[in-house]
């Protein structure tokens, strides 16, 4: 069963440009190391915080990544931008619908 990872956090003041610039390389490294990663969406909340939403093939893939994420150099480097984290949670997908052609700006 697919799992969605939700990670809410704030980044250090002045880090946004680097944080966003390093994101594509971090996601590419994450996908190489953890092939169960199906999609990733970085969102900005109204209060200035961030919510990272990652879709995983199953709970095992999500848990493996959560345990080993800092062993991937690009991921560890990207995480340095996080000033305050509310932690991560994993939720199981009970039902889903995806547009035939999902186009996301990136």
UniProtKB/TrEMBL annotation:
Keyword Oxidoreductase: yes
Entry keyword set: Monooxygenase, Oxidoreductase
InterPro entries: ABM_dom, Dimeric_a/b-barrel
Domain ABM, chain residue ranges per copy: 2-66
Transmembrane segments: none
UniProt keyword Oxidoreductase, yes or no: yes
Any GO MF annotation of the entry: monooxygenase activity
Protein name, entry field: Antibiotic biosynthesis monooxygenase
Source organism of this protein record: Actinophytocola oryzae
């Amino acid at each position: 069963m697919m799992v969605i990872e939700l990670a809410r956090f704030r980044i250090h003041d002045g880090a946004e440009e680097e944080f966003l610039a390093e994101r594509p390389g971090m996601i590419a490294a994450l996908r190489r190391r953890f092939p169960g990663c199906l999609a990733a969406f970085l969102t900005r909340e109204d209060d200035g915080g961030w919510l990272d939403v990652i879709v995983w093939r199953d709970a095992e893939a999500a848990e493996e990544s959560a345990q080993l994420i800092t062993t991937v150099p690009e991921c560890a480097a990207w995480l340095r931008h996080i000033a305050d984290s509310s932690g991560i949670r994993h939720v199981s997908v009970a039902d889903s619908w995806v547009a035939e052609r999902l186009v996301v700006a990136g």
